[in-house]
Design a protein that fits this description.
Four copies of one chain form a homotetramer.
Chain A lengths: L3 E7 L3 H13 L4 E4 L8 H4 L15 H10 L2 H12 L10 E5 L2 H16 L5 E4 H7 L9 E5 L7 H14 L3 E3 L4 E6 L4 E5 L2 E10 L5 H7 L7 E11 L8 E4 L2 E6 L3 E5 L3 E2 L8 H14 L7 E12 L6 E4 L6 E5 L5 H17 L17 H5 L1
Parallel strand pairs in A: 1-2, 1-9, 2-6, 3-11, 9-17
Antiparallel strand pairs in A: 3-5, 4-5, 7-8, 8-9, 10-13, 10-14, 10-15, 11-12, 12-13, 16-17
Chain lengths: 376, 376, 376, 376
């Protein structure tokens, strides 16, 4: 394994792997991805894989725009990654329902329907009885649902693996179980100290999810990131009980290939505790039963946790390091890392190549909470 | 492995292993245990291990008497099995609480307290405030509890393994993953057809839990047995949250070594479905939280099912086969197999040896539901 | 769930599920599949999924012909099942190498190459150096390999699940954890006793793999079937180490999606022992390393066993029961159940419908080892 | 949870938990253990649990002396921890054989036997035929073995858990999934920054195994520590195949409760790679089969890795921090952490209390490789 690369990416989650993929797809840059754990082992594999470009975002702005654009890349990406790596990312294009359990929720969702339509995005209000025709196992108590036909879903572990193996096939190197422990920033290029020795990159990207804040601090940048723990569970059924994703009251039910149903996710800020608590299991099952009573007959499969990387304003950090010209940052995608990964990968690759103006990403600037800026 | 034995036991669950152990402990009989699956893999390892001689039995009768006698064997047995096999059965002697959540339950439990005392068994009514002194994490809403100081608990998998390995050490043979498929009953001795060929026993014992009914049918005996499925879950805690077993409303919480808490068990008759259903998980967690709110902070460990072997009158079958003099039966211990295993093993060994009068076990006669007897 | 069906299939492995699928695809017959365990839990999920129509069969005859025809169904089937059930069966069409480690093996494989060509099937001898160009990680010691470009592979668990869920979607019923315990064969139709009560089928199919022999015996038919235990292991790699399946010396290496490598399989006849033995692990790893030294760096994933249903002459049983006109049999596919499943499903469906002459399946007649025939 | 403690221990492995236990046993100090992962999750639970005070140490010196003294604490400790926490540490006192496969090994082991005897330690040379009487399943090819009757074994996970839960019961606090990220060292006391906020200790102990080097570096101390990866596997048997631990050629076989056999361990320096490689599995099984052919019949259970914390001279670091009077260090126990844990815990507790002279631990001084000292 060489010690010198054109680009070194610190972080082998979905963001780091997507960047490696787009870099190798478009350039001959030598690329190394360094991951302290297993590739795709943290938030990237804990996610449920919803592509909730509309479902997760309720107001106009740069993230809403980015999300829709990133979502539009999946149909082609799905074919492309299958072709290169042989991996099926299980892209499912069956839309998403946000269900209303009472009048108050109905009114809010009807407003949201208008909002999406006003922004030129498809969204439709579905009455309770229509909803039962489309998803007959849902609760008869529901008042209806907002239907978002374009919000699909993928298998996030498969997507991360497909990015990684496609990048590898196209020539990227991967080094797992190796921690980026420190940086030596010279006039040109970046030295990265790791448990496997020193590596040198002409450029380097910090893409370590919630742990990127610590790395940034080592380079003198205050870039706040904090973990929001989420617990998920999965059930299996002999036959699928729903066809589209259903969201209600912060609880989502995502039907996966082969009769699996992923139910997520609790929210707890500020902790790195990996335990699935009984409280979380109870909360998820109780909420899920309200919209889909049939979950009672589902077979328990498993439960797990992950840590979403949250930023103060809810926008990810993407761009150049303010103080070190060869250092780049892509982190903080919170609940939307899977959805945003293709476009993040593409933008960061273009930025590294020099084909994208930094200005284009100004709302996502990594230094927007830097002390100097805050003062200034 | 020989083909001829003094005693062949069909069934390597806790009952079969206990019989093998007591046989080898007291005689030089050659003994073979045949198990179609893994040793101790069914109800024996699904149980929570309560020794609820009083908690599970609310009326005087042969089972109440047997249960207490069997319970009294555990302290000595625990030492004995550790000595022979090196296995710790995790016998815990900290008593059991049956908690009352309301006045009605309180009155019923106070009556039960009197019942046990009237029968010369220790039982004590504990008020809500006293209870919180003894188990401070229990719900403050409880009206109190009946305390049964003698109802301890063990680790049922360890107990089954300890019976098996002690028996093996004393000379018994074990053949796992081998099904007893049919019987050839001669004038003397029993031929047992298995997937590993034919074995001959001077005597044979059917001890296959809920599957014994089918074997009995093959020998012409109608001996009804049906499965009662139970789902259990376990949580873990950095520090134990209760010291004694707590039962409330058909839900029991059994504190195990090292901070594990086993919560059981749902009841569903007539099915062999091994699936843990979401409904069962919800029910167990909901009931457990009512008595012990601290379970919310417990870490999810796992969930499993087992099939209790139920009989029409709730008493196990123990004794000789009515039509074949060399055939014996021990099965149908329902929720009390762990508790009753030592005495069942001892009695069956003595019956096989000829030291116990069949009359002694008349309430447990295997033919008490035989068609002929029923006709009368 | 109804009690009366047009066709009841006893056995929810790959054969039973394939029959159910083709029945529902082509008819309006009501269909019930009864499975004593979990759907697809035995040999169907233990297999490696090679479609070795040529690799596994070295002589002309009905099986060779059937295998090639069945293999040819996979490309279309793969699309069809994905469309109906959403499940990707991971069909990979990259051919298969049978490698020669020495001159003797080389000569034998060169003869086999001629045999396949003589039978109009593609096969090519690849020299050692050419082989390394196609699969660079293979051992430099190999003398070459026979290349079979048409022998692909699938994921057998996914295929079974896809058959089952597609059948279910098309209207078939499934009942798992329910054992077919006995038959009541009337003048018309079949009664099947199960742990969930009695079910009646106008016709019934026995498709329970190696356990079908026992069911057949209950219907008066001697149809010998015996288990051949196989142990398999799997390793994972960051990047795939081979592209095509490689076979050498009874050991096969099957590269799966995402960097998994399945290595199989030991052979042990006559046992139902589910244990993976250290001996098997050693044998598989040692043999695999001889052809592919790079397996040393593979990450251990897991090990498992399965029981191939073997018949005395190596041909499966497919056809009508000799004594009961409404009873059908499909079992005994040995190492080729995955490969043969589509055509078995199709043929059996056609036979049940009445579109296939029994004569067509005469080499596979279920009664070819019946005592009468043997005498006769 | 308070923010201020008398002693804060960074590291919840066996060393940290042992220190917490002895501190609470002997003082009223408030104690907090901070662990970045799960309690006892790293080397502490990966170890096989041999107490090889003689087997692992072949020369006189401070470690040899310490090891014997620590070993002598186990019989009493075993009872004490069971009493307090209810946890059985599975202490087995059946000695250990170091087996010779050829003449050269025999001569070396006979010399070692003399060495131990010369140092007043029991050791005996056992001929091949005698050895087979004591352990009949061992290979008939062995030339004999050195028998060390005092080198017992424990279950390391249980021991760590027992230290932790006993400490907790005696009043220590534990905070898991919390990383000690930095230190603020004032004139008196230590501030520890963690992901759960700042904690203040009058004194603090660094006891984070191989990760202690990095923490020490943050406090200005060069204290080299590097990981030596080890892979282990376990098999299970219906009946135990050996009674005592057997070591041969760097491979050890440790018989655990209930028929488990742990086989360890490979050695690979300088990596944090957690993967169990096929190479390691092959090596362990091959070596183990040479001494104990019966392992072939063992059932595969699982495989795992751990990282032993190695120091340049093989001695652990125990003592005070050279530059900060309230900071203490206990780490680097390499292959002997389980064995040395009781005495390390006791000594460190005494040092913290002020009952042990620093001089007593001078060979283990944490600053013996500090740059200043090295310069001289």
């Amino acid at each position: 394994m060489p010690r010198h690369y054109d680009v070194i990416i610190a972080g082998g989650g979905i963001i780091g792997c997507a960047i490696a993929y787009y870099l190798r797809k478009h350039t001959e840059y030598t690329v190394l991805v360094i991951e302290k754990n297993r590739i795709g082992s943290e938030a990237s594999s804990a996610a449920a894989g919803m592509l909730g470009a509309q479902a997760e975002l309720n107001e106009a702005g740069p993230l809403y725009t980015m999300a829709r654009e990133s979502r539009s890349l999946f149909p082609e990406l799905s074919r492309e990654l299958k072709e290169i790596s042989g991996i099926d990312i299980e892209f499912i294009d069956k839309g998403l329902f946000k269900a209303a359990k009472n009048k108050k929720e109905r009114l809010r969702l009807q407003q949201l329907t208008d909002f999406h339509n006003d922004n030129g995005q498809p969204a439709e209000w579905i009455s309770g009885s229509e909803l039962l025709k489309m998803e007959p196992m849902l609760s008869k108590e529901l008042e209806g649902a907002m239907y978002l036909p374009k919000d699909g879903q993928v298998n996030p572990s498969q997507l991360t693996k497909a990015f990684a193996q496609s990048a590898a096939k196209l020539g990227a190197d991967f080094l797992d179980y190796t921690e980026a422990a420190g940086f030596e920033i010279g006039r040109s290029g970046i030295g990265i100290q790791t448990s496997a020795g020193m590596f040198f990159g002409e450029k380097a990207v910090l893409a370590s999810g919630v742990w990127t804040g610590k790395l940034a601090a080592q380079t003198g940048l205050h870039m706040p990131l904090f973990p929001v723990k989420g617990e998920c569970i999965s059930l299996t059924f002999l036959e699928p009980v729903i066809t589209s994703t259903v969201i209600s009251d912060e609880c989502y039910l995502v039907p996966k290939q082969g009769g699996r149903l992923v139910i997520g996710a609790t929210m707890e800020a500020g902790t790195y505790d990996r335990k699935v608590r009984a409280k979380g299991v109870l909360e998820l099952l109780t909420k899920a039963r309200e919209v889909l009573p049939a979950i009672e007959q589902g077979e328990w499969e498993k439960a797990w946790t992950g840590f979403r990387p949250q930023t103060p304003d809810g926008l990810p950090y993407m761009g150049k390091h303010p103080y070190h010209k060869d250092l780049y940052i892509a982190a903080g995608h919170f609940r939307n890392g899977i959805l945003l990964s293709p476009l993040t990968g593409r933008w960061m690759a273009e930025l590294l190549i020099g084909n994208l103006q930094e200005e284009r990403l100004k709302e996502f600037a990594p230094d927007r909470f830097a002390y100097e800026k805050m003062k200034g």
